[in-house]
Write a structure and sequence with these properties.
This protein has 13 helices and four strands. It is mostly helical. A two-stranded antiparallel ribbon has the order 1-2. It has a two-stranded antiparallel ribbon with strand order 3-4. It is elongated, with a radius of gyration of 24 Å.
Length: 298
């Protein structure tokens, strides 16, 4: 029997305690490591040839999937080295695919207006449905503040207490960040929270816990369909992308956006600079200091 299970558990404990790895990251690492362990009959004792064969077995997988699996295994071997459990690191035998970061799906401001038009029409009823009040609060927070799906569904009931126009969230890697909350979002949450039981610890309760990510995805896609937008174009994360893209198009500072989104590396935030090139030219022509200097005539 392989010695891997207790070593993988120790590795994941280290990732959680020392590096603040998110729960979803730990689950993905666990799945990848146990799958690789089964294929090579034990990662802890595998050599470079075994890892090369493992890499060959990934030939039909997407480059992004191969990169993720290889990253998990490399981190595991680095842990074994640091703990003195292995003198060498055979992970150089794993493939290093070139992964091009895809541009995020983009919603126009007109698309987002259609979302809010559907919600507004539903809220005009004499007695709006609590489910529509919940949907209004959710979309206002996703698009108005750029929350991640996990961050939104796990918000405490009193997360937006008082007149405080911001949230302090703990996101990926346990990093805290300050997220501004618009007056619209606070008003939408204030209407919704009247329907939340006093004993609920969650802002968006469901059953014995909080709203699930899967249910959140279903709600957003149903709203897209009602707004006449293809559901496959929309998800909670696409609304987060729209928040970032539309802020940049409105002149937001990239560093401020990095802080609001909770990105550790500004390189991640820079993906949102895929704004219309025509607008960038207009920005230079209208805002650059040299605009006011007339060229000398010969």
């Amino acid at each position: 029997m392989s010695d891997d299970p207790p070593l993988i558990d120790r590795f994941l404990e280290m990732m959680a305690a020392e590096r603040g790895a998110a729960r979803n990251t730990l689950l993905a690492y666990r799945t990848d490591l146990f799958a690789a362990s089964d294929l090579v009959r034990g990662l802890a004792g595998a050599d470079a040839a075994a890892l090369a064969r493992l890499g060959d077995s990934w030939a039909t997988l997407a480059a992004s999937t191969v990169a993720r699996k290889a990253s998990a295994i490399r981190a595991f071997y680095a842990f074994l080295e640091e703990e003195g459990l292995r003198a060498d690191n055979p992970s150089d035998a794993l493939p290093r695919p070139s992964v091009r970061r895809p541009l995020p799906k983009v919603l126009t401001t007109a698309d987002v207006d259609r979302f809010f038009a559907v919600i507004a029409a539903r809220l005009e009823a004499e007695r709006p449905s609590p489910l529509d009040l919940r949907l209004s609060a959710i979309v206002e927070l996703l698009y108005g503040s750029g929350l991640r799906a996990t961050e939104l569904v796990s918000l405490p009931r009193r997360a937006l207490s008082g007149d405080r126009p911001f949230l302090i969230l703990k996101g990926k890697g346990g990093r805290e960040r300050l997220v501004p909350i618009s007056d619209r979002a606070r008003a939408a949450v204030a209407l919704w929270v009247q329907n939340v039981p006093d004993e609920s610890p969650w802002l968006f309760p469901s059953g014995k816990g909080h709203l699930s990510r899967i249910r959140l995805y279903q709600m957003v896609k149903a709203l897209a369909e009602a707004a006449g937008i293809r559901p496959d174009r929309v998800s909670p994360h696409v609304l987060r992308h729209a928040f970032a893209t539309h802020l940049l198009e409105g002149g937001a500072d990239l560093r401020a956006l990095q802080s609001m989104l909770g990105h550790a590396d500004i390189g991640t935030t820079q993906i949102y600079t895929h704004v219309d090139s025509r607008r960038l030219v207009e920005l230079v022509n209208s805002r650059h200091p040299l605009v006011d200097l007339k060229p000398d005539r010969p």
